[in-house]
Amino acid sequence: MFHVIEDEPYLLKVTKDFITTAGYEVIGFESGDAYLRYFHTDSYLPPVALITDFDMPGKNGFKVIKEVRKRIPFLKAVIVSGTIEIAANIHANKHICLGLAKPYQPKQLFSLLQSLMECEQSNPPVPACLKSKRCGFGIEHGCPFYTNSY
């Protein structure tokens, strides 16, 4: 299952529809604040990955990821943005697995979903992932599957 946070209703619907069509379960949220309300409930189900817009009213994507990682430090997180250069943002690199630039093509999202699932299957949750020397994406900066990250 994937969790998607997107404050633009049309993009949220299209993204959810695409993820469902690709064969995966998805839950969508219209804001970081709405996601965090769900996160703090007893009904919260951890996703394979959190895919979140960066620039949103209320808590932005980075703040949401940081808060969630306090309780689930190995959560895979992807930031989607059309307003910043993620690769150049050192702060972002400490907290995300990957960045996806808007506008993106469906094949880019599909490839991302496949990569996240492959990473999930090859890097199971704690404690096995602590033995891994590298993130399944090959990222050595801040990746939760890289042992020197924490």
Automatic annotation (TrEMBL):
One GO term (biological process): phosphorelay signal transduction system
Q: What species was this sequence derived from?
A: Mariprofundus aestuarium
Q: What is this protein called?
A: Response regulator receiver domain-containing protein
The organism sits in which domain of life?
Answer: Bacteria
What UniProt keywords are attached to this protein's entry? Answer: Phosphoprotein
Q: Name one Pfam family in it.
A: Response_reg
In terms of InterPro entries, this protein maps to:
Bact_response_regulator, CheY-like_superfamily, Sig_transdc_resp-reg_receiver
The residue ranges of the Response regulatory domain are 1-117
Q: What residues bear 4-aspartylphosphate in this entry?
A: 53
